[in-house]
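Translate sequence into structure tokens.
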Amino acid sequence: MRRVTLRGLFAHRGRLVMSVLAVALSVAFLTGTLMVTDTVTDALDRMTAATAADVTVTARPPADEDPDDSDTVPAGTVAKVRAVPGVADARGVIRSPRVVVLDGHDATVGATSDPSFLGLNWLPTGRHPVRLTAGHEPRGPGEAVIDAGAAAASRVRLGDPLRVVTAGGSFPVTVAGVAALPGVTPDATLIFFDTGTAQARLLGSRDVFTAVEIDAAAGVSHPVLEQRVEAALGAGFRAQTRAEAAKAAADELGELVAFLGGVMVAFAGVALLVSTFLIFNTFSMLVAARTREVGLLRALGADRRQVGRSVLVEALMLGVVGATFGLLAGSGLALGLMAAVDGLGSGASAMSLVLRPHTPVTAYGLGVLVTLWSAYLPARRAARIAPVAALRVAGAPSAGTSRRRTAIGALLLAVGAIASAVAAGAGSGVALTVAVVTGLLAFVVSGPVLARLLIPAVTAAYPRLFGAVGRLSRSNTLRNPRRTGATAAALMIGIAVVGAVAVLASSMDTSVQRRIDATLGADYVVSTTAMEDPPLAPEVAGVVRRVPGVARVTRTKVADVAVSAGGHTEHTWMLGIEPDAGAMAPVRYERGAAADALAPGRIAVGSDYAKEHGVTIGSVVTLTTSAGRTAQLTVGAILAEDRNPAQGRRKEKVGDTSRHGSRPTVGVGTLDRLAPGTPDDTLRVSLEKGAEPRVVAEEIRHAVARYPQLRVRGPAEYKALAGEQINGLLLLVYGLLALTIVIAVLGVVNTLALSVVERIRELGLLRAVGATRAQVRRLVRLESTAIAGYGATLGLVLGLSWGVAAQRVLAAEGVDTLTVPWTTILAVVLGSVVVGRLAAVLPARRAARLDVLRAVAAD
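Result follows.
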């Protein structure tokens, strides 16, 4: 039986290759994700081990959320920490990640695509991992040290003049030295100043630090020292051990990797599902084609267990080979994902790919499990073949669809339809999940029934266009509806996801465009390119005001605060705008007006917050800033909720309950009093009557050219930016789905190839009675096109229903306009025809090349 199994496995090399590819592509998604995650974790562990202190003290922000980049601790904290038992040394450190460095030609300096540097103070201690490779340490306000990677990338040398742009403005420095950070990402962009300069320029005060780093005395554990420091400093501070700092760093940088990894895992699941259909269909057809062979084995003494085991052994070997290739492909996929992350300025190119034991274990476990599961039912079917089957004609088509299958499919379809209606009407995410799962199961279970109903419609034009060949191809497609349904199901899943994503993305794009039209209220907006960049320097507003043709410049600011009302405290971002901003204010009021909301001592809160906490106009709320300042403000207005379906420019905090709604808003004067030194976030610009917008916009861009992190955008640019963000997500999704559809195409090729093997005698008879090779090729191509068209039809119906339901669920989150991208839908329909034609190339060629006499004589 072992020899028979091996011969059966290698008898059809083409089937073997395509089945292996299906398993390999599925495994590659997941293993690639695991390797990227392990690589990032390992790099962060090494970086933290090289740079982190034993214990680090930072300010504890309101509501016990993660510290913000602008949080500081008083300089006197260093002396307090040094007095704690078990502290060997303590030093104040400054880390400002929002610094831009320009060379003498105002070009950005840096080793990555991200223009931001990490600004630090130079600490000449034995524990400091940075080492000078040239020059000397910074010795005054006019000197700086930059990292070797940035210096080499921008050809910066000792003595070169640089201009540093920070939240407090810009200032000139000279390159006094070049430093390296051994053992960690050489692509990091770092700039060092002496401590006094770093305090004054990066933090705006010589009385504060970003954090205090502590070295533990010999014999004192880090957790014990952490507890002692927190007890000595009180509730306004938070201490972290090196291990906790490593985890926090991994969580922060891991957000992007987690997002990409989540997408990869999701599509790994889709790919695995598609592969399951392919392998199941392949083994089902093989068992049917080898009915006579298996019957002979049974007649010669093989028992049921041996026959079933032989099929499962074939599946096991296929799974092992597929998992091996999937593991190799996953490595390549991981390298590509690392390159994508590196393109966003993370320095990932310096990380060495990590392969941990759980990755190959997962690869082989998953590959083998999928193939064995897919082959289980065909193996049982093979084991039930009786010896008398040796006398039957091989490959006889199975009977029609069963009543039980029809009833189960109808029940699932009804549940899915009801769940979709509930999801669309009530905006329930749970109902949407139920609709997706039951709808998919309904279409899979009902595939044979739907094939009998839809294939005649899909192939209605075949007889008229292709005559007898068209009629024969239609009947061949309907000959085994179970096979047709299973083959088309793989393609259906990929197209369903494409359709749903297309509807959702198109609706999101339309909703964003309408939101921009309704809320922008200014001719142009000056803002930074990303939240990691330095905010607007104080002088930028004056620079823009002096541009000819500018009528008014309205400033907006954003501060990190905690809002308390009714015994509840919520951590969020607070918006500050000028009271006389008028139509340029990026807010809408449900009750009250700007004059009431933005007056001194007043605040406007979102309607959701007001309802949840019983706040009305005239209520008093307490604000606490990240620096610990508190104030009681009177609610002067209620904001209308303004949810943004696209991710905002500013990073949201964990636990930020207003991230999908309107933020609390105060006048700029009130915000400056509560959080002095808060930089401008955006400038909204209105033009004088008669001014030429394009001309004035170019003048504004020229005026702010010395601040490379700034962008000047009008409504059209904002719409284009939103479209680019959505299209970027779509490209990622479509790229991954393309691989899933490739697996589905392999399934169609496999089905057609095995169908040709089954019908060798039939095809020989066709040739014998006068059919040409071209007609045989056309016969197979038309069958493939029918299967692809049927799968595309089911997929589009399913995908459109999912997309519409998802849009209704997300309507409360800002995706309030349903748009069906008919161009994309048409492209999918045409693409399915192309897929059908391509999938039939090899099987059609093989069918046309059959020797007529041998084919007629075949059993």
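Note: The chain is about 55% helix and 15% strand.
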